[in-house]
Known about the structure:
Helix content is 39%, strand content 24%. It is of the alpha/beta class. The protein folds into two domains: 3-225, Carbamate kinase (3-Layer(aba) Sandwich), CATH 3.40.1160; 304-421, VC0802-like, CATH 3.30.2130.10. The strands form three sheets. The protein has an eight-stranded mixed beta sheet. Strand 15 (403-410) and strand 16 form a beta hairpin. Helix 2 (44-57) packs across helix 5 (110-118) and helix 3 (62-80) runs antiparallel to helix 4. Aspartic acid (ASP) binds at residues 9-10, 39-40, 45, 121, 187-188, 202-205.
Amino acid sequence: MLIKVFKFGGASVRDAEGFRNVGTILKKFAEEKIAVVVSAMGKTTNALEEVVKSHHARDGKASGLLDGIRNSHISLISELFAEPADVIDDLNETLVQVEWVLDEEPHEDYDYSYDQIVSVGELLSSQILAAYVKSLGISSKWLDIRDVILTDNTYRDARIQWEATQKNTKEKVLPLFEEVNHIITQGFIGSTSENFTTTLGREGSDYTAAILSYCLDASSMHIWKDVPGVLTGDPRVFDEVIKLPRLSYKEAIEMTYYGAKVIHPKTIKPIQNKQIPLYVRPFLDPSSEGTVISDEKELSYPPVIVIEPDQALLHISTNDFSFVAEHHLSMIFSLLAKYRLKVNMMRNTAISFSVCVNNIPDRIKKFETALGHEFKMVTDPDLELITIRHYNEDVLKDMKKNKLILFEEKLSDTVQMVVRNLPKMKRKEMV
Ligand code: ASP
Ligand code: MG
């Protein structure tokens, strides 16, 4: 059976018009077998994060915030359906699960609570989409992905249990495709073997689509986005960016590793393993192929720029001015791992070790405390990490304008630099 996997992100279902557009796309594929993975509507995940925060702060605002989310979904449903009553009933039934959580004292494990509450965003959007797709007359069914994707209990960053997930896909998803053409399900969420809901990390719906593609042996995977494909830079930052029509898996892995936000970094590996082509394509122009990511080998690329904002440099030295030696480094690294600080760049000199990490102040504080008296640490915040793949001297010169370069590393095909933007600069020209 030939199955395709489609993923629609939050931007594609941000309003009624978005749902209608998704419906139009799916209608074109009505006779094909499609697993449709959908994210929460628009900014719903952020709004649900606020509910979790309020619940744990016990500030009395959590229920009100949840009602705001309920109301925005109800007005969308009312706009989308001629007879919205049943869909609204389903919505309220799903939200009851969150109300129960809010009725209780906050759970001692914040991340556990987070997953129980935030996961509802995808449940709601997928229920609405499933009802809408059915109303269009497409042979389809809603699926609770938590019956399929099993994970460990690392809440907010759950790891997939591949064997169980693969077995579930064979036993629970494939038979559904004997009955209907489209299966509508949630991105981002999974379940532990004890039936607690987990999430796969922010923006994890791409990863869900890749997991399903892998387990279903999909013929192709398609991420429908609000951009024409994979671009040479962020169009919100640069005036002139171009679309890359073709990309190798390797290049895509490198780009996402360095922080390109176009695809979730965990997405590529599973589909590369099975050589499944990935299309990153515009939902506003469904006839365009967008960018095709596949096993291309000898492609040449124009310069591609990836900017990671909000970085911090941590300068670590020993208090007794002794060299930072291997045993120090091994301790520093195990603490970086323990406090989940991702190392984006690093450098060591005789008496200091500097590392560029995402600026997450509470984790950095804990890390600094754990380093203890043996070390001194100075933090340099408000920095950017710029990565340029396939650079040339012109682009390099351009990117350095109005910036203080704190760190720079040049490899044959990649330049990385940690920079501070100097005041009153405008970033304009580009590749
Ligand atoms: N809704 C989740 C988020 O906004 C997952 C996703 O969009 O991929 O992070
Ligand atoms: Mg999203």
